[in-house]
Amino acid sequence: MNMKQIIEQLIIDGITELQSNGIWGKFVVSDIVVERPKERSHGDWTTNIAFVLAKELKKSPSDIAQELTNVLDSFDISQLSKIEVAQPGYINFIFDRSVFIQELKNIINGKNKYGSNNKLKGKIITIEYTQPNPFKPFHIGHLMSNAIGESLSRIIAFSGANVVRANYQGDVGPHVAKALWGLKKLNFEPTDIDKIGKAYAYGHAKSENDENIKKEINAINAAVYTKSDSELMKVYKIGRTKTLERFEEIYKMLGTKFDQYYFESETWQIGEEIVREHIGDIFEESEGAIIFDGEKYGLHKRVFITAEGLPTYEAKELGLAMLKKKRSLSDMYIITTAVEQEEYFKVVQKALELVDPYFVGKIKHVPHGMMQLASGKMSSRSGNVITGESLIEDARRVAMEKMSERAKNNVVEDTINAIAVAGIKFSILKQHAGKNIVYDADMALSFDGDSGPYLQYTYARCQSVKTKAKENNIEISFKNVCEQSVDIEKILAQFGDVVERAEKEYAPHYIANYLLELAHTYNTYYANNKIVDINNPELSAYRTAVTVAVAQVIKNGANLLGFHTPEQM
What we know:
The protein is an alpha/beta fold. It is built from 20 helices and 14 strands.
C-alpha cells in the first residue's frame, strides 16, 4: 500500500476499534478524505474525518480527532513517526524519513514504470481526440485537443488500461464543398496543401452573403455525399489524401500515433438510418426536418436530419458511436471537445443512450478552452485562423534562437523539435483543461520560467550531474543521507498519488504543476549544495541518488504530458 492507503486503512481500523469498545456508536463511513496539506509544516498527510463524523457523533471535531488519535497512537505503525491533532479538528500524519528514503530506492529501481498503477487493469478505454477536417487547416483548437487527448491516453495507459487512440475527421460536409468550389474558382490544383487551405477560406468568405454561391456549394456538397460527379470526386480524392498526409506529419511531430481512424463519409449513412428508424419514439419530424426534442430531458432541441434530407453532425455522431462499439467494445469512451460544444454533446449523448442503452455511463466528454496569442494578433496563411502548423513553426524558431544563444556546439534538430513541442503542450496542460489560455511563445519556451523547456532543462542538468558523478567514480548510495534533501524526498514520494488523481479527474494539469514544484525545489537544492564533492564521496553518493530520482520522475511525468526530455540542452 502507498502512504495514502496506509492512512485510510488506519482510520478505518481506528473507527472500528472505537465502535468495538462502545466509545462510538455503530455507523458506516462512506468516504474518507486523506490529502496533502497545503503547508508542509502541517505534516505529510491530513484528514478532515473528525468534521465528517461530528454530526453523527454529536461531538466537536476537536474531541473526535483526539479520541481517534489516541487509538491510532496505540497501533504499532512503524512507518509513522507522529500523529497529531491540529485545531479545530484536523488530524495530521508525519511519516518516518525511512519511508521516503525507501521511496527513492523505488524510483531508481522502478525507472520508467515508477508511478504507474493497475487501477484500470483489464479495462479497454477508447479516447477520441484531435479531430481535424480534411480540406481545412489544422488549427490551434486541434493542437489543444491533441495535447489533452494524448496526455490522457498516456495517463490512463499508465494506470493499467488498454487504450485505443481514435481520431474522427470530417471528410464530407459544407467545409469540403467550400474548398472544392474555391479550388475550381481560383483554378488551384488540389495537390498543393496551402492552396487547398486558401480555397476553403475563399469559398467560406464568398458564400457568407451570396445566395447563388451558397446554392452552388450546396449542390457540390450533395454531389460529394452521393459521389454523383466523377470529375469532382477526382479532385476530392486528391485533396483529401494530401491534407490527411499533412496531418500525419503533424501527428508524428507531436508524438501521437492513432490506432483507429473514423471519417464522416463512413458515419453519415449509419447515423441517418438510425435516426429514420426511430422517428416517432426518439426523434420527430418538424418543418420537414427530423429533430430530437431534448427539452423533454432538460436540454434543448437539435436537428439530426435537415429539411433537405442531409444528416447533420448530430446524426453522424450516432453513426460514429456505433462504429466505435463495433470496432472496440470499450468500458469507457472519452472524447475531447471544445468547451462551447458541451451543450451540443449533452443532447447527442442523451439521444445515443436512448437509441442504445449500452452507452449509458460509458461516455465522458473532456472539454478544452480556447487558445489566444498574447499579442492578440490573428494571422496565418489561411486568413484569420491561427493554424497549428504556424504555431509549431513559430515555436521551433524561438527554440532555435534560444538554443543558439546557449549551445556551444551545433544544435540538434530533434532537440529543437522536442523543445518546441514541450513549450506548446505544457502551456496547454499546466492549466485546467476547460479554461482558455493565452499563449506567449517567449514564455512558453523559456528555460527559466514555468514551462516545458524549464523541466527539460532541469532534467538535462540532472543528467549532467549523473555524468560528473560517474567521471569521479561516485555511485549512488543511501548510507550517508543529506539533511537538506528532505523536501525533495517528500515531493518525489507524491508522484504516484498525483498520477492517480490526474487519471481519476481527467486532469493532466495536476502532473504539470507537480513537476514544476519538483523542478523548482531541486534547482534550489542544486544551487545551495555541491552535489558531486570528491572530498565527501558518501554524501555525494546520496545527493547523486536524489538527483537520479528527480530526473526519473521528471522524465516519467513529461512522458505522461506527451513530450520528450533530451539528455543534453
